[in-house]
Amino acid sequence: MSSRDVILGRVRRALGGPVEAPDSYATAIDRGYLREHGTRSTEQTVELLAENLADYRAIVHRATSEELPATIARLLAGHGSRTVAVPPELPEAWLAHTKTERVADDPKHTPAELDQVDSVVTACAVAVAETGTIVLDGSPNQGRRRITLVPDHHICVVRVPDQVVSSVPQALERLDPTRPLTWISGPSATSDIELDRVEGVHGPRTLEVVLVSGG
């Protein structure tokens, strides 16, 4: 018996189950846990997402699909961005109102080169209301993980309500586990032993989320 088997056996014993490993974890483990906490309408779920995003110090904006290009242009200008990283299949209309120089998502770019890029604009795969989390899966409208971790300013567009779910279990049902998933809860931050918060350590210092409705 390996150390792993001993540890898992102790866990199963503490949970009041059989000590021996089950024949199949898929069938022997109770999956009757809550899929979401409480009952919310679609509008309440979107509001909870906005609240939790803001709680994590992301900056939340609202826009209709018609307002989105102007909103993105305003955010880039407000950040003073001269360059913006663009995933290969980001909708062209999203950047129609900005003259910011576009930098294509090119695998040849080094981290040092990407560090000179001011902003990145992406779509997302799904957003989790209960945790205030945005999930990217490397799809063509989101680009490689590198372009969302190196530039200091990330603008992420979330379609509401169809890309918003209440809970992590509901998000997992929509995601492909074989894809490079990036789970983002607010701007990158860390704290030392004295709880001094430092942002932008291993990702963007500023995360702006645009909740887009209609179309």
Automatic annotation (TrEMBL):
InterPro entries recorded: FTHF_cligase-like_sf, LUD_dom, NagB/RpiA_transferase-like
Entry-linked Pfam families: LUD_dom
Domain of life: Bacteria
Alphabetical list of Gene3D superfamilies matching this protein: NagB/RpiA/CoA transferase-like
Residues annotated as domain LUD: 47-212
SUPFAM superfamilies: NagB/RpiA/CoA transferase-like (SSF100950)
PANTHER family from the UniProt entry: LACTATE UTILIZATION PROTEIN C
Name of the molecule in the record: LUD domain-containing protein
Native source species: Streptomyces endophyticus
